[in-house]
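Q: Predict the bound structure with uracil.
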Amino acid sequence: MSEAFESRAFDAVDVIRTKRDGGQLSDPQIDWVVAAYTRGEVADEQMSALAMAILLNGMTHPEISRWTEAMIASGIRMQIPRDAVGGRPTADKHSTGGVGDKITLPLSPLVAACGAAVPQLSGRGLGHTGGTLDKLESIPGWRATVTGDEFMAQLRDVGAVICAASDDLAPADKKLYGLRDVTGTVEAIPLIASSIMSKKIAEGTGALVLDVKVGSGAFMKDVDRARELAQTMVALGGDHGVRTVALLTDMETPLGLTAGNALEVRESLEVLEGGGPDDVVELTLALAREMLTAAGMEGVDPADKLKDGSAMDVWRRMIAAQEGDPDAPLPEARETHVLPAPADGVLVRLDAYAVGVAAWRLGAGRARKEDPVQAGAGVVMHAKPGATVRGGEPLFTLHTDTPERFDRAAAALAEAVTIAPGDSRPDLRPLVIERVG
Ligand code: URA
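A: Predicted complex:
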């Protein structure tokens, strides 16, 4: 903790009142309240009240920027000097979370295969969206924790590391996020933006691409709020010396044809083999191009690295470096159950949130941080919007080790689809809706 952030004590109630009455918090107030909360000197109930006042009254950009700085200063700020990682520029991607969002898995080795270093500190899933670490942990032997030296060596030798963030990285955010989760204050844009950006800035990346999801399966249900979040985060990146751009991308429907840990690893391997669902390939390439441009490597075409197998080579080395066996069979659920299409026609809607809830109920996700997840559980979709389906033919296959979960998963999917007469065309928005940066 730097001295600048320690200098002066305030009364927590005064800080709360300032924001409650629509005022602007001063830099010293922000520095103090974040640091004192992290140390346990500001009580949870006081921080809850402040978070609610921020949700209701907002923050100015200077306040959000200072709040982010104070969260970074609550822990370590990593440095990744270019000469320590073989001269590679660093670039990372962060997604605000969606259903079937396995993009990090093919993207990180792909961008590393193009010559950048990708430091990806990731999290586990909570609720209806899956976490990258949960997906990778379905690979036999793979471990999420690496030491600082291993992290730097892997970045230099392989080019990509996906691992758990250490407890020292933005500890204020860990504490505050847990509190927001149980006080109805997750949705405040200043708090979401500072939470995400404090971790990404502290991680030490030089360039950052944000995938801000919009739709039923995302935090942000509408484009206007997603744009506001994206603009806020892009500006925070600029304030703190990280070249940042954001894509707003569709999350009305799940990404790809799978939701669930090992199922999504399998689909990611298809992409790395040069195949895979069109939407997963499209988004992987769009984000890879943005990461390379932000890292100053515009001339490199990532599509070539998928085709020529070099992204797959990096994947194999990246998994093996963390003791995973890239050749081991992936776990499969013990039981499956097929749900048929209810009618003939064109699938015009497949709701991301419903699929996420079904996968979660099957055991792919957790309700509390400490719950285990089933590696093989999840949902396979046999059609995506725009496809013609036939009544009675498989629409979903549910996977779980615990078949007593089938009924609740099927109930989540009961209203998930709309099938329209055969000549209908779904009104689909593009996968990449807008670029902010
Ligand atoms: N992800 C984060 O890391 N923080 C938030 O506040 C929301 C999503």
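A: The CA atoms of residues 238 and 244 lie 7 Å apart.
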